[in-house]
Amino acid sequence: MRKTYINAILFCLSLILGFLIISLYDSSKNVLDDDNITERRISLLRKEIDKADIEKRSLYDNINTLKSEIGDLEELLEKSKKGFEDLENELKNYKVLSGGFDVNGPGIIININGSSEDGGYFGSIDIVNGYYNILSIISYLNSAGAEAISINDQRFTSYTEIVPVNNYLNINGKQVVAPIEIKAIGDKRTLESAVNFPSGILEQMKYMGFEIEVIESDNIKINGLGNIKEFKHAIPFDSEDTE
Length: 243
Prior knowledge:
- By secondary structure, this protein is α+β, with helices and mostly antiparallel strands.
- It has four helices and eight strands, in the order H-E-H-E-E-E-E-E-E-H-H-E.
């Protein structure tokens, strides 16, 4: 009887121990499963981080590329502005050289008339007596860097015709009589020194009986030609293209 009772107790204890072992096994399995899940999550997070890092580097590369392209565009724009300014200045120079446009600037005014006593050689009776003197003055002014010249408001260019006719001069097809007013735009001091020096052209003309006055001005206006010369035979070309 006693032996049976002991066996029963041992059996119960064995059952309890078995349940405990099974419970511990299940708990350890759950813990291990949780660890595996955590590792997988960490692995996935690492992959996401690596992917984000690659995308970030790609974005940085794109930003640097865009910065470089913007820099190139800004440089191109600056060159375009410079080229436009150069073309604008070149066009302005051509406008002045053509003589077809009104211009203004600093320079000198030379007033020439015959002697108040006897009419000199250049009175309104015979203006052609001063023909070669006027040409000499124009030549001196051009040599001194005059950028625009007019004679009695007739624009003078390299194609201007000055023809003596009876008692007047024909300039650009217009009759010009005394008194003569020559305007020249350029450096005032240089222009004045070029024509008004000891034994120079103006002093010689004064000796001949002309009344001459030279005025410096900061704002001289010279009108453009009414008709610009048309070129029929001379055609511009790039010499590099013909090589």
